[in-house]
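Can't attach files on this board, so I'm pasting raw text. These are the components:
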Amino acid sequence: MEELAVAFTHIAGTGSAVPQKVLTNDDMAKLVDTSDEWIVSHTGIRQRHVVGPEENAATLGCQAARRALEDAGVAPEELGTVIVTTTTPDYAIYPSVACEIQGMLGAKHAAAFDLSAACPGFVYGLVVARGMMQVDPRPILVVSTEIMSRTINWGDRNTCCLFGDGAGAVVLKNADAPGGLGFHLLGADGTGALAIHREGGVRTEETARNAPGDLKMDGRAVFNFAVRSFCDIIAQTLEHYGWTEKDVAWIVPHQANTRIIDAAVKRIAVPHEKFYVNIDRFANTSSASIPIALDEMKQKGLLKRGDRLVFAAFGAGLVYGGIAVEWTK
Ligand code: UT7
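---
Top answer:
Structure tokens for the assembled complex are below.
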């Protein structure tokens, strides 16, 4: 058996895609008993993008993937694996969206699979990809694509105002030079499995054949878990490296609710300005929220070589995931 050499895994390219159609909070107030004032003050959301009839998880994910590949200068044929994270696969449950996208891209030498870790799926995807790349160094494409608008009950004001559709992607490449993906923290509390759930699986004969498949959520329970998760991820990352908040350029949080960030900021020594927030324009796009934010930050010129970032996410499961990244593009 050969000794494995440890390589550094870098984010070589990013891309994102959101549907054209936008629903504002005033549009939501025509559907349910809500208001722009309530939604903004309780969540920070002002609008969300939603797909049209021709779009789905694969088409949106493929757009984001093409942009990430172009940004990285990697051809689809060079990819070793396509990993897709999604809570809204086009088929339940096979074929995977990863296989759909692998076919659309012509990534003919790549393995392909979907990874199920809800909103932290992107972070889980990075960690899994890095592990795989220690054995097979070919580039890996991680795509997070979510069509939340087809899973929510548009008559339930508790959930329908919170989510949006979108996709984000990164291409990972190995290099000898240090940087890229660093310390990670993944975890779960399965005792909270029903705090966010959606029927439609084979749990019972009835759910398999008749369940409506609407997203159901205990918002308060998720909120509390989210605040704890953000604080743990950030505190443990700082402790691992011996950093203070001054050593971190940006926290890129899962975009679920600005009040979750406010609550975390009260408990940890990282100021609000270091959290990148774009939930006002995209709402909660589940696992796509961090790669969409990252791509937007890159396009705005906010990321400098050597910047230290921390991605932090939580979601259904309940699961959480965080990873430190040194920006090397
Ligand atoms: O990616 C992970 C996914 N999930 C999350 O991140 C969710 C985390 N949780 C949250 O973001 C917040 O808990 C929510 C935004 C979901 C709710 O905010 P809250 O401050 O925790 O409100 P609440 O659940 O305590 O509800 C307060 C009231 C309720 O009315 P009553 O029962 O007190 O009369 C709700 O019916 O607010 C009402 N409400 C609304 N009112 C107007 C809930 N949604 C709306 C709405 N418009 N859209």
